[in-house]
Amino acid sequence: MEKIPHIFIKTKTVLIKLEKLIAGFSLLLLLILALSQVILRNFFELGFAEMDTISRHLVLFITFMGAALASEGNQHIKMDFINSLLKPSFKEKIKVPLILISAIICAIFFWYALNFWLDEKTYAPANEQLALYLALVIPIGFFILSLHFFLLTLTIKSTEAN
Q: Where would you say this protein principally sits, based on its record (predicted)?
């Protein structure tokens, strides 16, 4: 069995801690903003449009961080209906290539999401700058997912040993 470089395992550990922190903070902030928006609208007939924009994007933060954490544990949603028909030995042989394909697909999504965001940045009006920068979560989320899948291909032996 080949030795897995320590830097990959350390990178995974730091990423997981950071993602848990971002997901937890985003969820807490989402709850606070939603509750305050309801109270402001119902009791003071007052509301802030920016709070709704932030809340919508916080859901994306939570979703992408949760997806990254699930992919790290190899517990993400898998579209592998053929998997039940395959022999266990063949499943082991194609595990790493399938994870690598997932990394490549997420990297492609990252590339196109980033290009779309850069295009939006060029033409976004001044009153939509907050939503524009919050929308960076989409390319960043796909980058993080791609990174997780890539690191999983490199460290899958150590993950299975634990």
A: membrane
For the chain, the helix, strand and coil percentages under 3-state DSSP, each to the nearest 5: 85, 0, 15
**What are the domain boundaries of the chain?**
6-161
**CA of 82: how far to CAs of 28, 79, 86, 91, 152, in Å?**
39, 9, 7, 10, 22
Contact predicate 146/103, CB 8 Å: yes
Nearest-angstrom CA–CA distance, 132 and 85: 45
Identify whether the C-beta of residue 149 lies closer than 8 Å to the C-beta of residue 103: yes
Which amino acid is residue 13, in one-letter code? T
- Token look-up 């119902």 returns 42
Number of Cα atoms under 13 Å in the Cβ half of residue 114: 12
Q: What angle do CA 19, 113, 127 make, to 5 degrees?
A: 90
- With contact defined as beta carbons under 8 Å apart, do 106 and 146 qualify? yes
pTM above 0.85, yes or no: no
pLDDT in tens, 119-152: 999 998 988 899 999 999 999 999 999 999 998 8
For residue range 23-59, list pLDDT tens digits in order: 999 999 999 999 999 998 888 888 787 888 899 999 9
